[in-house]
Amino acid sequence: MDTLEARHRDLLARLAAAAGGRPLGLLAVSKSQPAEAVRTLARLGQRAFGENYVQEARAKQRELAGLALEWHLIGPLQSNKCREAARHFDWVQSIDRPKLLPLLDRERPADAPPLNLLLQVNIDGEAGKAGCAPEAVMVLADQAAALPRLRLRGLMAIPEPHPDPARRRDAFARMKALFDDLHARHPGVDTLSMGMSEDWPLAVAEGATLVRVGSALFGPRPPRA
């Protein structure tokens, strides 16, 4: 039977086989999905969930209060949402400009652990797409690592959805090379978030440590109201 439970079980098995024994995390992309679907996966042991919109995530967080979940903001972050992001998320995966860093650092509560950050890279240089240029990563990383309430964890990317798998795999390989360079500069870096429902096997083959899966796990997203 094609249920959420069955899809989760099958996906975990496929991820484990693809990883070949190395650590590989699953971020369940729950944007546009109801809180009850998140609750179902939480009962199955899934803890990490990704949301694109701060306000949508906050509504789910309130409904699911009491569950020990890890919330990742994976959508573009506007400056006026930094306060809520810093206070109500465990990770922000979409850092792409220096302006966001001091705002998040200032708003992160002193009694909370440092906010985990990934730098989003526009690896294919697509016009109008979020993410910093590859050549800007090191400077942005140095700025993030210098702030006490933030913790630089690594990189995130959404390569161009090219129909040729070889083109996508090349983008993932370039991200892995950039990640290795960043790790050499900042040894605490440990997370390379890349690969989604349609291309995560290619990303894992090139060294992803975290994949972001939505529709292949939850099924088609319901239309936004």
Task: Spell out the blueprint of helices and strands.
Elements: H1 4-19, E1 25-29, H2 35-43, E2 48-51, H3 54-63, E3 70-73, H4 82-88, E4 91-95, H5 100-107, E5 115-121, H6 137-145, E6 150-157, H7 165-185, E7 191-193, H8 200-205, E8 210-213, H9 215-218
Parallel strand pairs: 1-2, 1-8, 2-3, 3-4, 4-5, 5-6, 6-7
CATH superfamily: Alanine racemase
Shape: globular
The number of E-state strands comes to 8
End-to-end distance: 29 Å
Radius of gyration: 17 Å
Q: What proportion of the residues is helical, as a percent range?
A: 40-55%
Major β-sheet profile: 8 strands, parallel
Give the overall average pLDDT: 96
Q: Treating each run of at least 4 consecutive H or I residues as one helix, how many helices? A: 9
CATH top level is Alpha Beta
> Could you give the order of strands across the largest sheet?
7-6-5-4-3-2-1-8
Low-confidence stretches: none
Oligomer classification: single chain
- What is the SS-derived class? alpha/beta
Could you please say which CATH topology applies here?
Answer: TIM Barrel
Integer count of domains: 1
